TrEMBL record:
DUF4097 domain location: 53-274
Name this protein carries in UniProt: Putative adhesin
Species lineage: Bacteria, Bacillati, Bacillota, Bacilli, Bacillales
Pfam families assigned: DUF4097
Amino acid sequence: MMKKLALFGLVLFITGSIGVLVFRNEIYQIGVGTEIDERIAFTDAEFEMVIVEADVADVRFTPTDRDHIEVSLTGSVDDSSENVLTVDEDSQVLTVNIKQDQMFFFNFFPKSNNLTLEVKLPESFTGQLEANIGVGELELENLMLTQLLTKVNVGSVIINQVELDSANVIANVGDIDIANVTGDWSVEADVGDVNIDLLAPIDQLDVETNIGNVKIHLPETGIEDYQLQLQADLGDISLNGDKVGTGDVGSSYIQQSTSGQRLSVYSDIGDIKIDWKQ
């Protein structure tokens, strides 16, 4: 019980923090800031890995019909911010950094920060992506990758039409929406809902949330071939609308299989729903 109360207290604290972060421009805005529009094309380089580090910015990974990677940063920043966008080319690794203020800890409420970083990837790029974002939304769409590693402290994650071998997605505070994907996935959300729509059967899917609902849509093959390990400490579990594993407190459901496909979902506070076409 004490754990649940502590978690609810954490939710209230985080909710207030999010409100301050989201509306900080309106509350503390003194000036309009400086407009920024920077674009870099890497025409003479081939990369196997792209890393993005951003303190406060929305980040989007999208495809391009060109044969090279393009990076653009648009929006507005504080007048005091300098060299917001920096890039580093080290062998076959491209690192993109967004840092709005060297003294960000002491300048917690910037006057006017509204940045969007877009990384356009050519069809020839099928390597590894890594993104670490302090505050901001992360989007990926229409990509083919080997591996994806992402972490967002405050902000949502939206992934659509992505084919890959493996992915690790973490959002400390924010929803995670994943649709039309392939590959093995590990998904973690401290506070936020998780929605996953699989394009094809996978070997392994691990989902964990502290506070939030989990909804997973499987391909038409259904759930019979999956080894299931589902647990909701304070919530319900349903398979195609039918509640299963209901206990006195919380729910748990285990299904054995020899196919090698595994689906593991854990929710501390929240419901687990898995459905598929029959």
